[in-house]
Every structure is written in structure tokens, then in C-alpha cells.
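Dataset card, provenance and construction

Sequences and ligand SMILES were collected as paired inputs. For each pair, a complete structure of the chain with the small molecule in place was predicted and serialized as C-alpha cells. The example below shows a pair involving inosine 5'-triphosphate. Curators did not alter the output after generation; any descriptive sentences attached to a record were derived from the structure itself.
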Amino acid sequence: MVQDIVFVTGNANKLKEVQMLLSGSDINLSNEPLDLDELQDTDLQKIAVAKCQQAVQVLGAGKPVFVEDTALTFQEFNGLPGAYIKWFLKSMGLEKIVQMLDNFPNKSAQAITTIAYADSEGKIHVFEGITDGKIVPARGPTAFGWDPIFEPLESHGQTYAEMTKEDKNVISHRGRAFAKFNQFLSGN
Ligand SMILES: O=P(O)(O)OP(=O)(O)OP(=O)(O)OC[C@H]1O[C@@H](n2cnc3c(O)ncnc32)[C@H](O)[C@@H]1O
Ligand SMILES: [Mg+2]
């Protein structure tokens, strides 16, 4: 059965990837481009759940809706910038983010997408996808966020920005989170 589900995001690049990731499923996806408040926290699930609760409040209860929050965590910094990567990116740019790690040999990072989905009864379900990689000097087009400085371990030396969207989706944090979400929805 086809399910109508709303994805609340103001990020067009995200939306494009999510549309691709859900294209084979029985979901009739629509987008509400609201810029929701984001809780200041290092707990990624808490952030996603609060964002989802806010989306339900704005759109009204009873409509299945989901949000996702994406973080970039540096192992050397015990998880930071994490969800704050958005503001680092806006204020400093990619080059300085890479330079933050100049004095540290440990460049390990994780890209993490946390989806929070409110079903028609208002129950919230959370799904997470993680991709391990490292931070490198920018390579590839700067079309989407920090894609040029994240090199996943499984990519044979390419940054996300150097990969096609199709290839990125196979190994990405977002791809993994949405694979779980898809499986959940198809079982419902
Ligand atoms: O409306 P929402 O969905 O919250 O969209 P947003 O742009 O605010 O997104 P986040 O709060 O999840 O912040 C994540 C930051 O990381 C960036 N980002 C998210 N996913 C990414 C990906 O797969 N590759 C590179 N950058 C990404 C994004 O542009 C933001 O700067
Ligand atoms: Mg946001």
C-alpha cells in the first residue's frame, strides 16, 4: 500500500539524495521546506527526536512525518563538531575545518545520519546510519556540504564529492539510515 509521508527539510541536496533512496519504495514522498530549530546537544538521537516533535507540532498530528539530522564527528575531538558541523561550515569553510586537525595525526571521522519518524499515531521511531572515514584536504566539486573533505574507508580513495550520487548512496551514512527506514516501512 502506498503511504503518504512528509519529509521536513530545508536542504535541497539532502532532499535529492533521500528521493533517490526512497524511489523504489511504496512511499509517496512530499517535502515541507521548513527550517526547524535544532536542539544544542551532542546526543544525536535527542536532536532528531526534538526536530521531529517540532515538525509534528507545525504540520499537525496524524500525518506521518520524518526529519533527519546529519553529523560529522571527529574521533580526535571525541565526537565534535558532530551536529554543529553546519555552523562550522557556515562560519569557517572547508579549508579551516581541515586545518583544525593539522596538529593531530588522527584524522578519523564518522558521518552519521539520524532519522526520526513520527507515525500516524504520533509514535516516534529512530534509525541511524554510520559511515567511517577520514578528513582530507578538499577534493571534488563543492556541491554538497562537507562532501569534498570526507573520504569514506570503503570508497577506494575517493571523497564523497568525487563519487557519483549513486555510488555515494550505496555506502553513505544517509544510505544506511534510509535502508533501515525502508525496511521498517515495508514491514508495516
Ligand atoms: O533542514 P535540515 O534537514 O535540518 O537541513 P540542514 O542543512 O540544516 O542539515 P543538518 O541540520 O542535518 O546539518 C548538517 C550539515 O551537514 C551538511 N550535510 C548533511 N548531509 C551531508 C552529506 O551527505 N554530505 C555533506 N554534507 C552534508 C549540511 O549541508 C549541513 O551543513
Ligand atoms: Mg538543520
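Derived descriptions for this record:
The mean pLDDT is 96.
The pocket of magnesium ion (ligand 2) is lined by residues 38 (CB under 6 Å).
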